[in-house]
Amino acid sequence: MSSLSFNHNYFGCLGGATTNQALVLSRPGTSSTSRRTLFWGLGTLGAIIASVFLSPLMINQQSSPEIDPTDYAARTRHVLSTTPLIDGHNDLPYLIRTELKHQIYNDRFTFNTGLLSNTDREKLRSGMVGGQFWSAYIHCPKDAATKNDVPLEDPTWTLRDTLEQIDITKRFVAEYSDLFHYCTNSTCAREAFANGKIGSFIGIEGGHQVGNSLASLRQLYDLGARYITTTHNCDNVFGTAASTVSAGGEDRGLTAFGEEYVAEMNRLGMMIDLSHVSHETMRDTLRLSQAPIIFSHTGAYALSKVLRFAPDDVLRETAEKGGVVMITFINRFLRPDSPDAATIHDVVDHIWHVAQVAGWDHVGVGSDFDGTPVTPRGLEDVSKYPRLVELLMERGATDDQIRKFAGDNILRVWEEVERVAERIQASGTRPNEALWDGRTWVRSEMSPPTMFRDSIGKRIPSYLGQP
Ligand SMILES: *[C@@H]1O[C@H](CO)[C@@H](O)[C@H](O)[C@H]1NC(C)=O
């Protein structure tokens, strides 16, 4: 989500073949050692034969020799019909909130026949979209009079409205179930695409939406959210936002509670998104996280000096940790000096830069469609992804590199985040009970029984201040 505002402080938010061995070995307890050895032998032989006789064919199929390499449109169609293009960030749920107060069962919401905004049925299909992280976004709460951030503990409605964003995303996906398939894991995402559906996933666009509570975080995971952007355009209990630093504030990186948050995100299997955080928050998180991280919608700081974009050391460290950097389409970040001049070529430049610095295994696409008032020329809406891929091919990207960029990278990261969570949970790590130390606690004025001899004076005081 990016806000339509003239205030410069505003930051936009807005398969591989299975070998015989693998099949045999994965079947538990069916064979004796000698049978297993025999199977191993046959499997290995089969694999050798397959690699000698079949793999040239496989490779040829992958890179489609029948397609003229300079026919970029045909290559693009081939690649995007066999690998899902998965976008990291689309703000349609917030637009539905803004325009319709979450009411979609009416004549006004003409999703099927066309909308003026960036995303509708027709555009998604002509854009060959194969999967989408829908953003559950609620803005940072501001004081109406001063326009300052409200105190951290104040905005409990933020969590309510986040629940509404999750609810509308699920209802929207269910309402158009011939087009979408709701998923909460990477396996489902691949299957949805194989079944001709647009896999639909939920990401939350700000740690301020989590209610300062790791318990709430766990419940958001249970509701289906699979990434959280550590900050949006306000500091929160977890860390420093890029917007704070660009407004002259200090970059304090992650807080102590933010370190607990990173650990709990890893344990849950929720992807950590660093799209709006400060550079020190990026570096702290990359140092601490046991799982790869994502940027759901960002750009290269080397090309555009906006502080929410990732500098080269962060790009390299993200690659080192196996993560993915998904490039956004927001004009005023792509071309801070002349936003109106932004085009699809600027997006290509950012993708190319990340591919050169971090590698093709670590770049992807995260548009911010429907969350930004203006889009680059040539990338007006979700129907334009194929054009972006064609331009990357024109610049020299191979089909394999495009597959990684389009969807394989984010799916690999998601799988790895799932694996790390399984490992942490299998090791017996319990849910994290850490509390934000700025939390205020009150209880009702009732007089409950005492649990301990020293309860009086230690437990939560009543709201009148009586212990
Ligand atoms: C992944 O999601 C699908 C669809 O919701 C579900 O059936 C499956 O059990 C999930 N797999 C794992 C490993 O959680």
Automatic annotation (TrEMBL):
Cofactor(s) this protein requires: Zn(2+)
PROSITE patterns: RENAL_DIPEPTIDASE_2
Molecular function in Gene Ontology: metal ion binding; metallodipeptidase activity
Pfam families in the record: Peptidase_M19
Keyword Magnesium: no
A Gene Ontology BP annotation from the UniProt entry: proteolysis
Keywords associated with the record: Dipeptidase, Hydrolase, Membrane, Metal-binding, Metalloprotease, Protease, Transmembrane, Transmembrane helix, Zinc
EC nos: 3.4.13.19
Keyword Membrane on entry: yes
Family recorded in the similarity comment: Belongs to the metallo-dependent hydrolases superfamily. Peptidase M19 family.
Name of protein: Dipeptidase
Source organism per UniProt: Talaromyces proteolyticus
